[in-house]
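anyone seen this seq b4? input:
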Amino acid sequence: MKSINNTYTAKNEDGTVTLYIDTLSQDIVDIDVAPGETYVKFETERVNIRNSAYSTRVWLRNILKQFPDVTTIEIGSGVYELDINNEMFPNVRHVISKNSNFANGKSMLLKKIHSGLKLCNSFCLKENEVLDLSGVTVLDAYSLSGCMSDKIVNESKVNYIDMNAFVGSIFTLKNTGSSVAMAGTMLVDVNAGFDETDFPKEISVVRNNIDLLKVKNARFPSLKVFDVFRGHTDLSFGKLCFSGDDSFELSALMSRNECGCFNNVEEFDINNQYYKTIDGIIYSNDGKTLIACPGKKGGTIKVAEGTKYVLRCAFYNSHASEIIFPDSLIELGPESIKACDNLQHIDFGKGIKRIGGADMPTISYCENLAEFDIPEQVEAIGINTFYCLKGLTTVHFHDGIKRIERYAFASCDKLNDITLPESVTNIGQFAFGAAENVHLQGHCMPRGLVKSVAQNSTAVYAPTEDMRAEMLRSVVTVEVNGTVVYIPKYMTTETINRTDDRFNTYGLTDEFYMFIYEMASCTNARQDIAAKIYKLTKNEEVGSYLRRISNSYSSRLLKEGREEDLVEFLKLGLMTENAIKKLLKKADEKEAAIVSAYILRLIDNTSITKTSFKL
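predicted toks r here
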C-alpha cells in the first residue's frame, strides 16, 4: 500500500486494478484499470470498522475516466454504497454481489431497497440489447445514461423514476414525432409544440418532476391513466379530455377534484354514455347533476338549466367571480363551493328550499364573498352551511325562512349585523357567532336566539388580561319594534342555556331585563350591561342594583380611563352628593378632565338633593 495525497492504494493480485482509498473515511475515491483487464472488484481490507458489516463507500461518479475492457464488476462484502457512472464501464454485462446490499445483475447494478430493487446503472446498452427490469421499483438518477437501446421489458413494478434517470439516453435524444416520449410503459417526457398531448393508455408511471407545463391540452383514455399523474403539482391544462367510454364512479371524479387535481384546468371535454360537458363543466349524461367545474374557469359561470344537484367539491379552488344557479336546483352537496378566492356573488335560483345538510359546510373559505341573498323560497339553512367566509359582512334574509341550524355561519367573523324576518322560528346554537347587532322584524321572537349569538366565556382567549376583560363585557344588541335589549356576549354554558330559556319564555319584557345582566360572566360585565339596560328601560330593579354598586363602578370606570362611559353613568342620576364629591377629588387626582368638568357643571347648575342628582 502507498499513501498519496491523503489516500492510500490497494491493488489486485495482478496489479492491473488500483483503488485509491481515503485515509480518513476509508471510501474508494479513485480508480485505475490497466488496458485489457476485464474484471474489477470493489473491496477494502477494513470490513468491520464502525461496528458495521459494510464500511466502504465507492464514490466515483465525478471521476472522468473510462475503462471499456471491463465486462464484470464484483461488489465485495465490505461495500455498502456504490456511486459510479455508466460511461466509466460502458461494456459491463455482469455484476456479481457478495453482500446483501446489492443484487446480481445482467448489465445492471441493482441495490436492494425496502420496496424491491433500485436500478443504479445500466452500463450503456447498445442498440437491440434488452434491459430486463424484473423486480425493479426505482430508477435512480442517470441510471440509463448512455443507453442506446429502447428495448425495455418487465417494467411494470417501477413506481418511481428520478427526474434525471433518462438523461443522456436514447429516450431523450431521439425524435419520434410523438407528443410524448415513452420507455416501454414509462413516460419519460412530453414534447413541446403540440396543440394536444395524447397520453397513451399503457402509461404505468411518470418520471418525477416531468415538465407538464409544456402541455397545452391533454387527452387521457381513462381516469386510471390520469391517476398516474396524481402528485404532480403542475397539472395545468387548457382543456382536459377523457376520450374513453369508462364508467368510472362519480366518487372517483369528486375525490380527484377535492385533492386539487383539476385546479389548473380551464375546460373539460368528456362525452360518453355516462357523462357530458356543457361549457367545459362535467355533468351527468342526463344533465341533472353537476360533477366538476374546472378550477381555472373564471368570470361568471351559469350552471345549465335542468341541473338539480351539485356534488361535493364541484367548485373547488374555482376562479369564478360569480356563480348563477338555475331555478331547477334543489340541492347543493357538502363543500360544493370551497376555497373560491375570486367569488363575489352567488345566485341560488328560485327552486332550492334548503341550503346545506348535516355537519359538513356547503360554502366555505371563499375570502372575497362579502354579501349574498338567501332567496325567499328557502325555508331552512343547515348545520355549518356557511363556514369561514372571512369577508362576509351582509346576508339578506327574506320572509319565508323558518329554521337556521347551529353553526350556520360559523367563523364568519365580519358578519356582525343580522336582520331576521318575522318568519324565523328557530335558530341553532352559535349560528351567528360573530353577531353584535340583531334586528328582529315584525313580532319575530325565534327560539334559540341567545344561544345563536352568545359564546362560552371559558373559551375566550386574548393576548392580555385587559383585552380579555374588554371582550368579556361585550354585548349583543337585540332590537325588535323599537325595543332594545343587551345580551352578554360571553357567558358560561349553563348561563347561556338559562338565558335562552328565559328569552324563549318571556321575550323582551321586564322579567327578562331584570334577569339578563346577572348572567354576564364577570362582575365588570354585569355592571356595564346593567348600566346600558337602565339607560334604556329605567327599570327600578336594575336601578336599585346600580345604586348599590355606584361607588365601586364609578371608581372602576375612572381607573380604566373610560371617562365618556363614566359621564354617561353620572347622567343616570344614581349617585349621592357625597359620592360625587369624592369622585371629583379622584378625577382631579387622575387628571380626568372630562369627568371633572362634567361634575363641576353639575354642581354649578343643579340643585343637589341628599340622595342623588343629575344634569
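The first strand starts at residue 3 and ends at 4. The chain is about 20% helix and 30% strand. kinda curious what u guys think
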